[in-house]
Design brief:
- This protein is mostly helical.
- The protein has one domain (10-50, 58-193).
- The chain is 79% helix and 0% strand.
- It has 8 helices and no strands.
- α4 (64-86) packs parallel to α6 and α6 (119-155) packs antiparallel against α7.
- It is globular and about 55 Å long.
- The N and C termini lie far apart (55 Å).
Amino acid sequence: MTLHKPAFTRAYRLTFALSLFSFIIGAAFGYGFWQENPELVKSFLHGLLEQLQELTEKINRSSWFGQALIIFLNNLRVSSLMIFLGGIFPFLPLLITYSNGMFIGIMAAYIGANQQITTEAFIISLLPHGVFEIPAFVLASAVGVVWGTRNWLKWLDIRKSPGFLQNMKNGLSFFPVILFLLFIAALVEVLISPSLLPAPI
């Protein structure tokens, strides 16, 4: 299957904006959720961090390139899930971007409240790799939503559509862009972002 040059059409632009909006709303909700019920959120975070402990230890034992590779592959897995699950369930990518935003919002509030690092400092430390990583996730979400929506429009005989495989080909034309953004984001996250995060006082 030969991929053609991606066309960022109106459908992709609108869905990109919708996915970005879901991410921002998730971040705001996560931050607000901490303010409303910090003990419940703390319990949730501790459970989640325990599940991620093995991955965290693996990253810490690796060289800088190994760390970047682990981060890249993990983010690629999430992006691929959004695309391919979205091809069947077009609402799922929006839920994933929302949950990612919610997690960042919760972490920003948690770190600011419990580790004596300001929320602003935490957000600043996310910016260098976030300017690459967030667009990659949002673009992957948009691709999945558009692909799945076009598939269902055809399956339900609501509107003419090229078909499942052609819609997939159109969506996957963005995949090299997503790969590039995720790779740059992983390198920046390992080499630059940690230097912007101050040590706890």
